[in-house]
Amino acid sequence: MRRAARDTLIVINGGTFDGPSNLACDRRMAALASEREFRHLLRFHRYAPTVSVGRHQALAHEARLSYCRARGIGIVRRPSGGGALYRDPNQVAFTLAAPRAGSWYAAPLPRLLLELARIVARALRSLDISACAALPNDIEVAHRKIGSVYLSRHGDIALAHGCVLLDADIRTMLGALKVPTEKLTAEGLATARTRLATIAELTRTPTPPEAVEAALASSFARALNARLVTCAIESLSEPASPAEREAERIFAASIVWEAADDAIQSVLKSDSGKTLRARARFSPGGDTLHDIEFATDADLDPADFLLELAGSLKGMPVASLEDAVAGVMRASAVTTSGFSGGDITSLLRQLAGKQRLRSRRGLSIRDVNALMLHDASGGYDIQSILGKATVMLVPYCAKPAWCKWRHRDGCTECGMCEVGDAYRFARERGARIITITNYEHLVDTLRQMKQGDVPAYVGMCCSNFFVKRHRAFVEAGIPSVLMDVTGANCYELNQENEAYAGAFRAQAKVDRRLLAEIAALMPRAPGQSGTC
């Protein structure tokens, strides 16, 4: 990221603002940077407690909206991609506005994100913190996240955003974020606190925020081959105007997805761990896509590619969707960091499969939205997977807290909960059924199923578990259809660690009627009789 001639990097200290005001200042920065006298601008600032979601994320899937409203935690949407973050005064936040004139501007998005992370890591190393850049956009110390960077391009200007953790309010962070963005280890043993690093714990003597800001400014100046100039720019130190505040509110609410019964929804985890979501409406016959919306925690360039793609697919025959995706991606020359065109087509197959199942079985949109799929082949045909499923997995949390079988594999089918129905349905189909008692038991069971060449299985878990613990399903590599459980769940109650250990005490609910529909599509073993 070096320029041929020495330039100027103007550093602005912006103070502490709420989310809308900080984003309004960023937009003002982009406008100023496009003027000749303002080339590179670097603004340091703090956030009042705020959830910052990425450009393409669906709010209802990323933030606990009621928790945030009750505690006065703001919610904003960044112009850059990536995952949801909790921001507060315990972090040094920065925004860099840089012009197209920089030779690095045209670099592919993944490479540019990594270079930005390296700049931040070099700054921290100058403070005797052994930081390094980690794909795709994090800064880590001994595999623990201490910061992250994000980027968006606006005409001739690139806006880079980032933050470094001075300290961490873990309780509020986990309360505000519905699916915390920290990445757990493959075994799922890391907790949020041990996954995060902070300057407060890593330095021998207290490091003031100003020292961190100075190190960052020096590192950026070196990367840009620029001389540092500290400047007070009044427009970049003012809170958002009423008009700007309303614009940020509208932008934040542009992708919410709170309703679960107005469109068919599906979610897919890419090989890199990014989440890709879509929701769609089909024609009554199911042969035409009426409209579609996408959401993701990945980074995209151009930033509005998913909107362009959705517009291109509107009104298109289902049979033509995959070719259309490939055509739009070629035409837009899109760069993605976290998913591929193949992931998009797999997601479309999921949606189309749910529409077919809904039409053939008379299910509601809410019914098919309660189904999650894993299929390494990319086919995602629900009925085909169910037609070869020989195992059913049920979570212990769906059994009553008073049941002596809650933490044991087995059921007396007493009729006091839906798990008894699951055992009966499995028995009538000649399928094996197992109560999963904790996360390690799930991993071990899936490993044994893989070794036993189980062709497919039916499972039950909440959608948050499916997304966050998706690696377990991927490593098993067995096609599966999983039903979403409702009622009390550990993610909404902030009791993930208890659930992981098998000590979660509340009871989840399984939809008996949908369970019967799913079980009826499982194969019947020879010699079995009865109906679901």
State the CATH superfamily name of the largest domain.
Bira Bifunctional Protein, Domain 2
The shape is globular
Strand fraction equals 15-25%
How many separate structural domains?
3
Characteristics:
BirA Bifunctional Protein, domain 2; alpha/beta; disordered N terminus; 20 helices; about 25% strand; about 525 residues; about 35% helix; eight-stranded mixed sheet; Enolase-like, domain 1; 3 domains; five-stranded mixed sheet; Rossmann fold
Secondary-structure blueprint of this entry?
Elements: E1 7-17, H1 19-33, E2 40-47, E3 50-53, H2 59-62, H3 65-70, E4 74-77, E5 85-87, E6 91-99, H4 109-125, E7 131-134, E8 138-141, E9 144-154, E10 157-165, H5 170-176, H6 192-195, H7 199-202, H8 209-224, E11 226-230, H9 242-252, E12 264-269, E13 275-282, E14 289-296, E15 299-301, H10 305-313, H11 321-332, E16 335-337, H12 341-361, H13 365-369, E17 371-374, H14 382-386, E18 391-395, H15 418-429, E19 432-436, H16 439-451, E20 457-461, H17 463-468, H18 470-476, E21 480-484, E22 486-487, H19 496-500, E23 508-509, H20 512-520
Helix pairs in contact: 1-9, 4-8, 10-11, 11-12, 15-20, 16-18
How does this structure look, described?
By secondary structure, the protein is an alpha/beta fold. The protein folds into 3 domains: about 5-250, Bira Bifunctional Protein, Domain 2 (BirA Bifunctional Protein, domain 2); about 260-370, Enolase-like, domain 1 (2-Layer Sandwich), CATH 3.30.390.50; about 370-530, 3-Layer(aba) Sandwich (Rossmann fold). It is built from 20 helices and 23 strands. The strands form 6 sheets. Strands 7-8-9-10-6-2-1-11 form an 8-stranded mixed sheet, sandwiched between helices. A 5-stranded mixed sheet has the order 17-21-20-18-19, sandwiched between helices. α1 packs across α9 and α15 runs parallel beside α20 (about 510-520). The model is unreliable at about 1-5, about 180-190 and about 495-505 (pLDDT under 50).
